[in-house]
Amino acid sequence: MVKKLFLAAVCIATLMSFFSCSAISEKNTRTIDKQQQQLKELLKNPDLVPGSRYAIVNQIATNQLSVKDYQNAILFLTDWVERHPDDTYDSYWLLMTAYAYLSSGAEPFAEYYFDRILHEYPDLLVKGQSVHYMCLKNLIQISKTPRNRIKYFNEMINRFPSDVSITELYMRLALEYEKDSDWGPALKSFALFLEQPDASTIQIPGEPNAYSEARQLVDFNNSSKDWTFESLPALEAAVKNAISQYDWRALDKYRAKVNFFSMSWKQDEMDPNSQEEFSMRNYMRGQRIYFKKDLDEGTTPNEAYLKTWGWSQYISVWYLYFRKVNFPVDPDIHGNWEWAGIYMGDKL
User: Fold this and answer.
1) Does the pTM of the predicted model rise above 0.85?
2) What is the rounded distance in angstroms from the CA atom of residue 222 to the CA atom of residue 35?
3) Distance CA 172, CA 141 (A)
4) I want to staple 99 with a disulfide (CB 3.0 to 4.6 A). Which of 15, 202, 267, 343 is the partner?
C-alpha cells in the first residue's frame, strides 16, 4: 500500500490502472462487441460458480470502460447490483460505476456512489486494494463542502492510519474545520498535527508554512491574550506614552507574549531566529528614543507601522509593527490590535 495520501488529480489515473482499461482501436471494437455478446450469453447460465460469474461481469464492464462507453457500463453495473443484492462483489461493481461517472465528468454522481459504497456495503479487497480506501481517496478529492471532507478525513485517519501520512491529514483536517468555522475541533486537529514527530519537517503541498502557522495559532490560543488593545489608536497611544516615559516595563507588557518577532526587512517572520525573547530595558537605558508623530504611510486597516529611532548605535531605526488580531475562536479578542513585532532598520 502507498504510505502517503496524494490530494491531486491522480484518482482517475489510479482507477484507470485499477480497472486495467486501455485504449481500443476501431478495428478491435468489432471484436469486443462480439465478445460482449458471448459474455452476456455465458452470464445467463444459472450454474455459474461465483468465481466465473465475477470474471464475466468484470470483463463486460471493463470492455465498456475501455472504449469509454460509460453510459452502458453504468446501466449494466447498476442493473446487476439491483438484481443481485447478495453478490459479494457489489461494492466493486459500484466502484466501477463511480469511476464511469467520474470519467464522464459527472462528479456529483460519482460522489454519491463512492459515499454509498462506504455506508451501505462492506469493504472488499480487489487486486490487493481496499475498495473503501479508494472511495475515501476520491471523495476527499472531489467533495465540495468542508463538512463532507471533514467526515472523509476522519474516516481515513481512523480506518487507514498505516496507509496515509497522518501528519498531513491532521493538518488538512484542521484546515477544513477552520473553513467550516468549527474552531474547537480545528484547534484540536492543529495540536494533533504538532504532536507528530515529523510535523516540523513535513512538506505539505500548498501549505509551505504549515508547522509555524499551526504553532502560532495553538500557542496564541493557549496564551493569556492580555496584551491586546480594543483599537489601534489605544495601542498607539499606550506605546508612545511608554516610550516618552522611558517605561520599559510598560513596553514589555504591551508586547505580544507569543509570536512576537524582531527582524530585518529581509527576514521571514516564520524564521525561528526572528522570535528570540528580549526585554526593552536592554535598549532603553542610556538612550534617547524618538518616534514619528503619525503612523507610517504604509498603514492599512489590518496593519500599522510606527517609526522610532535612537535604540542603538548599530541599528538606530526600528519600525514597531502593529496588527489586527485574527482569532475568530474568541469574539472578545478577534479584531483587537496587538504589537506583534519590530522591523529593524530603514524600509527597503
Assistant:
1) no
2) 67
3) 12
4) 15
